[in-house]
């Protein structure tokens, strides 16, 4: 594997209605196009509705930044995707179809790398199959590069915020030996789905109430499992969660709540949060104990990352842990590129 420089990455989510041409790619070293599909034959394909955007993704983002590297992210969190990936990984012949088609699709459309978004392998057997997939994928990527005299495709993966899911441990040694880096999804520690009766910080850097549900514990888990700091990129979520308060007068962290607000599940983009604060004249707070932002108006309470949270996380990643970098989920959720710009500038300070 070739040495990778700093990663200041962002994801474009094809379902966000955000135009690829509107991405301010000068603020990123790497951009992920999410998500490619895996069909019933285990071939990697572009989503039909967004085929043209995927095909022109690299060409489009390199207009503003000729040096930006692009990666095709495969899978995602949509219904049925995890089971398809589990089925694919369970047999060698299925893995070969997946691997070969992923490399062909990436090369044919000028991507510089690939990213596995299996959310999530959750049994011991699935972790064993993931290990086989990564070993075979790395071998195929290296073989293709030798045969074509091209630079090897970058190979990455999105992983759970912990190095173990229930009793199933990620194959960390193989991950370290086969992937250029991992994108650790250190967010969504709390949501109205997991914590319907109490507000909570969705992606706190620190958590004095439950030390396992925070960024610090997440990164520690992966490093303790054997990943090098320079193989880890930290998630900067440009999305938050909204709760409905039980009592408008109780609006701190961990205040009583009665489920989601603003959307069916409570999910909200940073751009929508900023509109909410302005339109509802909401009170915005920053809690330095948890390194998290929240706001409230009436009985609506939103936990999210704002500028100070981003500064804290990037500083933690760069100076405290010496990580490889960070990635934003997702660029279309930013507000006038304010979080992207702050992350980019903070890393270099």
UniProtKB/TrEMBL annotation:
| Record carries keyword Flavoprotein | no
One GO MF term attached to the UniProt entry: chitin binding
Q: GH18 domain location, by residue?
A: 6-349
Respond yes or no to whether keyword Repressor is given for this record. no
Q: Which domain of life is it from?
A: Eukaryota
Q: Name the Pfam families for this protein.
A: Glyco_hydro_18
Give GO BP annotations, semicolon-separated: carbohydrate metabolic process
Q: Which UniProt keywords apply?
A: Glycoprotein, Glycosidase, Hydrolase, Signal
Family stated for the protein in its record = Belongs to the glycosyl hydrolase 18 family. Chitinase class V subfamily.
| Name of the protein this chain belongs to | GH18 domain-containing protein
Organism, scientific name = Juglans regia
Q: What is the lineage of its organism?
A: Eukaryota, Viridiplantae, Streptophyta, Embryophyta, Tracheophyta
């Amino acid at each position: 594997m070739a040495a990778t420089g700093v990663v200041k990455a962002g994801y474009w989510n094809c379902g966000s209605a955000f135009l690829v041409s509107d991405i301010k790619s000068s603020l990123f070293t790497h951009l992920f196009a999410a998500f490619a599909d895996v069909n019933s034959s285990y071939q990697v394909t572009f989503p039909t509705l967004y085929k043209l955007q995927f095909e022109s993704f690299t060409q489009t983002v390199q207009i503003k930044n000729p040096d930006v590297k692009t990666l095709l992210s495969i899978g995602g969190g949509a219904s049925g995707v995890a089971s398809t990936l589990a089925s694919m990984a369970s047999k060698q012949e299925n893995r070969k179809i997946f691997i070969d088609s992923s490399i062909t699709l990436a090369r044919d459309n000028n991507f510089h790398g690939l990213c596995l978004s299996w959310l999530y392998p959750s049994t011991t057997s699935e972790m064993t199959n993931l290990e086989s997939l990564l070993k075979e994928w790395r071998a195929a990527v290296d073989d293709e590069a030798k045969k074509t005299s091209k630079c090897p495709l970058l190979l990455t993966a999105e992983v759970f915020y912990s190095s173990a899911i229930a009793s199933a441990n990620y194959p960390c040694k193989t991950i370290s030996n086969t992937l250029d880096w991992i994108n650790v999804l250190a967010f969504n520690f709390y949501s109205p789905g997991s914590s319907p009766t109490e507000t909570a910080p969705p992606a706190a850097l620190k958590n004095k109430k439950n030390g396992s549900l925070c960024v610090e514990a997440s990164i520690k888990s992966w490093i303790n499992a054997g990943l090098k700091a320079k193989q880890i990129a930290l998630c900067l979520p440009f999305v938050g969660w909204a709760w409905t308060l039980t009592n408008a007068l109780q609006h701190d962290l961990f205040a009583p709540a009665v489920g989601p607000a603003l959307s069916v599940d409570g999910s909200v983009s940073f751009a929508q949060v900023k509109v909410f604060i302005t339109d509802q004249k909401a009170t915005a707070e920053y809690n330095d104990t948890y390194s998290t932002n929240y706001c409230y108006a009436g009985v609506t309470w939103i936990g999210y990352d704002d500028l100070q949270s981003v500064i804290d996380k990037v500083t933690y990643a760069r100076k405290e842990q010496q990580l490889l970098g960070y990635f934003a989920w997702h660029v279309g959720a930013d507000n006038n590129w304010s979080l992207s710009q702050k992350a980019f500038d903070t890393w270099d300070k």
